[in-house]
Write a structure and sequence with these properties.
61% helix; 6 helices; 112 residues; mainly alpha
Length: 112
């Protein structure tokens, strides 16, 4: 399914969608294949609602489907490497945020 150019009406609608939830609901309703692939959902979101959309051209769903799960695999692998103390974030705010989340996770997990 090739994504057509946006009409003026759709452009106005997209400008009204302010929250991530509103935007994701819109995408899920308009592009049924995004219901099956977080990767495809992410790409459509980036194309519609960020400046990256200027650089991300049409990618057929069949191609995207081949890479489903790759973002999560990459994230988990990065997380494991950094948990070993290697290749830590260069941004101190990112490091601080991840450490706080990790501490919260350790507190909550024993309760489960």
């Amino acid at each position: 399914m090739y994504e057509e150019e946006l009409s003026a009406e759709e452009e106005q609608l997209l400008e009204k969608l302010r929250t991530v939830k509103e935007r994701v609901e819109y995408i899920l309703s308009r592009y049924p294949n995004t219901r099956n692939s977080d990767l495809y959902l992410t790409i459509i979101y980036l194309r519609k609602f960020t400046e990256l959309g200027r650089y991300i051209k049409y990618i057929p769903y069949e191609v995207i489907k081949k890479y489903e799960g790759i973002f999560e695999s990459i994230r988990r692998t990065r997380q494991k490497i950094q948990e070993e103390g290697r290749f830590l974030p260069t941004d101190p705010n990112t490091l601080r945020r991840r450490r706080k989340l990790s501490e919260k996770f350790r507190v909550v997990m024993p309760r489960l």
